[in-house]
Amino acid sequence: MYRLISFVIGYLFGGIQSAILYGKLKGINITEQGSGNPGTTNAIRVMGKKAGAIVLIADVFKAVVAICLARMLFQNEPSILVGLYSGIGAIIGHNYPVFFKFKGGKGIATTAGTLIAVDYRLFLISAAIFLICFGITRIVSLSSLLLSAAVPILLILFYCGEQGNVGIEAMLLGFVITALAFYRHKANIRRLIDGTEAKLTSKK
Fold it and tell me: Is the entire prediction scored with pTM above 0.90?
């Protein structure tokens, strides 16, 4: 039962679309501007770096809050699993928000928030992978895909020794996180293969 409730908590928090809400404050419909994606990258392109930073922090924070709440409710359950189920719920809530007709972002900032709350070591390593790739390529999608691909590998490295099936379940949930990211980036993957994926630039 803790798995389902943790997931639902995450989903409800994840459904809060900060890019859409911030855009409305500025009189902008982010879903009709730029790529139409209500996430950090498009917020930077359409509304500038300040807006992008606010959206990024909000999308990270909502996963952290959801996971902390779930862990408070289920203190006697495996912390890693409570965190991952809640985090996956937040990612799916961000990607397919019930509050916004199931049209959301791609979930990378919320994935980062999940990693921060689940185990800061996972975040630090995956963030380093993202930053190195982005520093070389300036391509957010490629950097995001590499970040997400590292998640199950890191979970195996850090949690394979957990008692019972906890480590195996954590690893499988890590693959779910990776699969969600790759699915949401399928158009980006096609452009990466074609060599037409855009590099990140902002209007100010």
Answer: yes
